[in-house]
Amino acid sequence: MDSHQPTELEKRTGFNRREFLRQGAVGAGLLLGTPHLWAQQTSRPAPPPRPKTNIDDALKVPRTRFSLPGLFPGKVAQVHDEAVVADGKFAKDVIAKMFARGLQALTGQDAKESFRLLFTRDDVVGIKVNPVGPGLISTRPELVQVIIDWLAENGLPKQNIVIWDRFDFMLRDADFTAERFPDVRIEGLQTMVEELPEGENADHSRWRDKEGNHVSAPNFDRDVFYWADVDGPKDLPYLNQHVFNGKHSYFGKLLTQKLTKMINVPVFKNTGNGISMATKNLGYGAVCNTNRLHQPLFFDVCTEVLAFPAIRDKLVLNVTDGLRGQYEGGPMPAAQFAYEYKTLFLGTDPFALDSICHNLMVEKRKSEGIKVNEHPKYTDYLRYAERLGLGVVDPAKVKVVRA
């Protein structure tokens, strides 16, 4: 008999943690990476050598004026408003005011001029959401609607806006649908069968073509990839979730061939002793064949994948959704650790953003009695990004503007 009593937040959101785990805990571990395998690793006496990657190929490509860390390196706008939520419901009009204040604090310009700084009316803009934990800790649809309204009000055609994530079913589950967002495009980089059929003669035609390839393989660009000297597993569950299983993690064609600019809208949540926010939302969301990377490359994927022009030269704005946060149990949803934070963070520099948010997460976890491991390995990827010229994370150089 299940003795679990729903928390107040579960009652308000309709999200039930036990039901989520019953439906897909094993698959979710493959999909998102299991925290005890990578985000909470203990030190080893003789760790294996770091696998080689093709990061040097990315660094050779000339940069543009929009290349990371963007127009405002090392600058973070932080906006808090107690009025944004009441009885578990988020007020879109208050979010709009918070967003406008954040833009002003970040760029020094109003919403209209901020648009002109970052976009033209001819851009094709992708909004990368985080749909994990729908209704509880996923990117708030109300915030995405505010961003869409801002783009459209400044002359960007709605058909030039794409809400995207790696997995199509997750977008649907988190209410990122054509019904909720008419006139804009909704695109998952890949499909996935949530419960694979079993048995020797099981029908896998929903995700494999006649040649045995994943039906989503054509969605990925074979000419643009993050290579790491690590093979992926060969089993069917892995292929179902990751499309390919060799040493290449291909970027979605959406990023390489269609989008000209991107807005990244992650969620304020932990992943073990680290965080799963701005850089991880793209580092593990823009390419396929990722689970093989979790343990040997740790958070470095969040730096190296963002160094490639498909992201580095197109990511012009990050808006970390802290309207509701989660301080433990991440990256998977855990309602007992979720709380209403009522805060947005804006920046062109995702590494500066994550450096500030990591410290705030550590403070929150400590205040809740969580034993926190503050080993530098959980933030090495941020300092690595600074060495590569992708971000500014030195506390003496990062500027937080509260609005």
Mean pLDDT value: 91
Please report the distance between the alpha carbons of the first and last residues: 49 Å
Instruction: Indicate how many domains the architecture comprises.
Output: 1
The amount of beta strand, in percent, is 15-25%
Secondary structural class: alpha/beta
SSE pattern, N- to C-terminal? HHHEEEHHEHEHEEHEHEEEHHHHEEEHHE
Overall strand count: 15
Question: What global shape is seen?
Answer: globular
Radius of gyration: 20 Å
Percent helix among the residues? Answer: 25-40%
Count every helix, treating DSSP H or I runs of 4 or more residues as helices: 15
Main sheet summary:
11 strands, mixed
Query: Residue ranges: pLDDT <50 for 5 or more in a row?
Result: 1-8, 10-14, 16-27
Question: What does this protein look like?
Answer:
The chain has 403 residues and is of the alpha/beta class. The strands form three sheets. Strands 1, 4, 5, 6, 9, 10, 11, 12, 13, 14 and 15 form an eleven-stranded mixed beta sheet that branches. It has one domain. It is globular. It is 32% helix and 19% strand.
